[in-house]
Design brief:
GO terms for molecular function: arginase activity; metal ion binding; NADH dehydrogenase activity. By secondary structure, the chain is of the alpha/beta class. It has 3 domains: 288 residues, Ureohydrolase domain (Arginase, Chain A, 3-Layer(aba) Sandwich); 244 residues, FAD/NAD(P)-binding domain (3-Layer(bba) Sandwich); 165 residues, FAD/NAD(P)-binding domain. The protein is built from 21 helices and 34 strands. Strands 10, 11, 14, 15, 16, 17, 27, 28, 30 and 31 form a 10-stranded mixed beta sheet that branches. Strands 1, 2, 3, 4, 5, 6, 7, 8 and 9 form a 9-stranded parallel beta sheet that branches. Strands 21-20-19-25 form a 4-stranded parallel beta sheet. A hairpin with a 5-residue loop joins β23 and β24.
Length: 755
């Protein structure tokens, strides 16, 4: 940790920290949370605050149990259990927090159950009003809303009611237990924000709805990502309001935080929890923090049921067909599965062509990676490096990366032309380490451009939903530009000439979908433009659909011909640039710099340059940058991580360096029949024996089984994932390797025909 560099807006003594340790569990029925403050302090928290964050600590050295305040008799009051005990403790705590806050210190309170927030928040609210004349805002991070009134609560436990008392939605008579809470100790519902909700009582839902309280559930986190949620939350509060952050540990998924009495699956990751605190801190508005509901007494039980303990941690890199299916299939009782992917959704790739032209909506091709039914944990990030010897991965978080889903390409926009704020934002991802027992690499691949000039910057690819979205927008833009009365005929022809490079299933299906949408929908909207529409498929091979039977491929070509789609085989592409082609006949377009920005010029060796509205590029796959860079360096690894495959009489310890074995043509990681990553000894070893990495597997588009030629399809990836999950679940990875069973191939060729 580093010393804080953010200048606090509302703390006159920002380098001073008031620490209050509250060993109180009376707001709920499970004992153990009273031991949490001491456990945190004994773990070195105070020393870290002093040494690493350079705070001047104001701490009385006590964990307050408030036993002297406990009443002899504490009957239920208005359905509340232990009302007088909770009232006495929170009133005393309010005074303690108030004393720190009025001095302009940051206040850290260690609980204890969440009922103590009645004391902490009332204390800061009063102090800030007196010192600054301002109201405070509260960010309540919790799986539960804790806004029940005594009348709506089913349990009567007061740790489910603090927000109701703090907002005035629940109140007591002056002589009743909570009559001590005055107006200057309360907060406004308009300055209250929830994050992480996923277990809300019926009465609480009604309260949230009727009072318009801003609440972000785990559904919102799944849908928008934690970065966007924090932007919206902080935007709601505003930049001129002091913030009290009240963090219930059960907001985290029990996979990360099992030691809590009210665990609810489907919660925040540890990284997302950190990110919330970081974002609030970076505003400079943070004045106080509560950390509550940690229950050390549940550690062994919770670990046995929900977290790592004796389970191996399996880290899966990638959320495509291989990674997503594997993560969902691993037994959670045997493995702690962590899925790491920059993309928070799984893409059903067969539907991408349909979404790109508008036949289907984008959400039909997407499935959120995170859900309450997940059998794994999810981290939004990408692997930057891996240390096989230490079994550790360096992960860069991508929560705030605006280019996620674009596969590093932005057709029609060069990298240096991107808005400066987006380039800065994309570089802010923080690195953190993640250990593993087993690692599964399923990072996928990128579209192969063969280094042809201009393709990466100007072509459109079809690997993700964001790619499909860009194609749809460009398609509509071409038609809208062409229909303008100021658009010359020559430009109309180029705008409505659509080129698809690649005659495989992706290129063919997109061409068919494009022809369908033109014929069935766009013809009705732009009838005057139909004579100018041209769709052309280019391929370097002498036929399309090479993986299909020759008769089926021929049938597809004949069908395309009947539909007006031109197929040009044996065409080698030479380049793609913005502007008009260098051919005669452009007429009044010559020299028109403004108009030249609308079209592309596709260059090939067989004919003159061709003007196009857009070019969709689908010519095969190239290895992911993680495979190219992170897995290209030589490394050392202990004998426990390496298993020799050759007959040479050498132990792994005697070999200085290893490299991950790559396929010579595709650059993909090579594996054995059991999907384990194969190694080569570094060049400095004369015998160059082969080996495998124990507990490291690779599958999907980024890997190939040595000596096989399985197609890089969803079918192969899914079968490998299910095979590996079954083997790992049974613990018999060394018996009978993977064997692909083809279920056939199919390609849509338009007008409900398939090949």
């Amino acid at each position: 940790m580093d010393a804080p560099t953010i200048q606090p807006k509302f703390l006159s003594n920002g380098n001073e920290l008031g620490l209050v340790a509250v060993g109180f569990s009376g707001g709920q029925c499970k004992p153990g949370v009273d031991a949490a403050p001491m456990a945190l302090i004994e773990s070195g928290l105070v020393e870290q605050l002093k040494d690493d964050l350079e705070y001047k600590i104001h701490y009385d050295g006590q964990v307050h149990a408030y036993t002297e305040l406990m009443p002899k008799d504490d009957p239920d009051h208005r359905n509340m259990k232990k009302p007088r005990a909770v009232s006495a403790v929170t009133q005393q705590l309010s005074s303690q927090v108030y004393e720190h806050a009025k001095e302009g210190r940051f206040v850290l309170t260690l609980g204890g159950d969440h009922s103590i927030a009645i004391g902490t928040i009332s204390g800061t609210a009063k102090a800030i009003r007196e010192r600054l004349g301002r109201d405070i805002a509260v960010i309540w991070v919790d799986a539960h809303a804790d806004i029940n009134t005594p009348e709506t609560s089913e349990s009567g436990n007061i740790h489910g009611m603090p927000v109701a008392f703090l907002t005035g939605l629940a109140s007591d008579k002056p002589d009743a237990p909570f009559g001590w809470i005055t107006d200057d100790q309360k907060i406004s519902v308009n300055k209250l924000v929830y994050i992480g909700l996923r277990d809300i009582d019926r009465g609480e839902k009604k309260i949230l709805r009727e009072h318009g309280i801003k609440a972000f559930s785990m559904h919102d986190v799944d849908r928008h990502g934690i970065g966007k949620v924090m932007d919206m939350a902080l935007g709601w509060i505003g930049s001129d309001t002091p913030i009290h952050l009240s963090f219930d540990i059960d907001a985290l998924d029990p996979m990360w935080a099992p030691s809590t009495g009210t665990a609810v699956r489907g919660g925040l990751t540890l990284r997302e929890g950190d990110f919330i605190a970081e974002c609030v801190h970076q505003t400079g508005s943070l004045i106080a923090l509560d950390l509550v509901e940690v229950n050390p007494s549940l550690e062994k039980q919770g670990a046995a049921e929900t977290v790592r303990a004796d389970r191996e941690r399996v880290v899966v890199l990638g959320s495509g067909w291989a990674g997503y299916n594997l993560a969902r299939s691993l037994n959670p009782k045997k493995f702690q599965t962590v899925l790491v992917s920059p993309r928070s959704y799984f893409v059903f790739t067969p539907l991408l062509a349909s979404t790109s032209v508008g036949t289907l909506e984008f959400r039909t091709a997407m499935e959120p990676v995170r859900s309450r039914r997940s059998r794994y944990e999810y981290i939004q990030g990408r692997a930057d490096a891996v240390d096989f010897g230490r079994k550790e991965i360096m992960v860069r978080e991508t929560v705030r990366d605006p280019f996620i889903g674009l596969l590093g390409t932005r057709a029609g926009e060069l990298k240096d032309e991107r808005p400066i704020e987006m380039r800065i934002e994309a570089s802010r991802g923080e690195l953190f380490s993640l250990s593993y027992d087993k690692l599964v690499i399923t990072v996928g691949s990128y579209s192969q451009t063969f280094g042809i000039p201009g393709v990466k910057d100007n072509a459109y690819f079809l690997k993700d939903v964001q790619d499909a979205r860009k194609i749809r927008n460009k398609l509509l833009s071409c038609f809208e530009t062409a229909v303008l009365p100021t658009t010359p005929v020559a430009l109309k022809k180029q705008l409505l000439n659509f080129a698809i490079v690649g005659g495989g299933p992706t290129g063919i299906e997109f061409s068919a979908e494009l022809r369908d949408i033109v014929r069935e929908d766009l013809a009705k909207l732009y009838p005057q433009l139909m004579e100018h529409v041209q769709i052309t498929v280019y391929d370097v091979a002498d036929k399309i659909l090479p993986m299909f039977d020759e008769k089926l491929a021929k049938y597809a070509m004949e069908h395309f011909g009947a539909e007006g789609i031109t197929i040009k085989t044996s065409h080698q592409m030479r380049g793609l640039k913005r502007g008009f082609p260098k051919v005669d006949g452009t007429g009044d377009l010559n020299g028109d710099v403004k108009a030249s920005g609308y079209t592309l010029s596709l260059q090939n060796g067989e004919e003159s340059e061709v003007g196009c509205g857009f070019v969709v590029w689908s010519t095969g796959l190239m290895s992911n940058p993680f495979i190219q860079k992170a897995l290209s360096s030589s490394f050392t690894a202990p004998a426990s991580c390496v298993r020799m495959l050759s007959d040479i009489n050498a132990s792994p310890d005697s070999l200085a360096d290893w490299t991950v074995q790559k396929h010579p043509r595709s650059g993909s990681v090579t594996t054995d029949d059991y999907l384990r990553v194969q190694l080569d000894a570094a060049d400095n070893h004369a015998d160059k024996p082969a080996a495998i990495l124990r507990d490291v597997f690779a599958l999907g588009d980024c890997a190939v089984i040595d000596g096989t030629q399985h197609p890089a399809t969803a079918q192969v990836a899914a079968q490998k994932a299910k095979w590996l999950a079954k083997k790992l679940n049974k613990g018999d990875i060394n018996t009978r390797g993977f064997s692909f069973a083809s279920q056939g191939v199919m390609a849509y060729i338009g007008r409900w025909f398939v090949s």
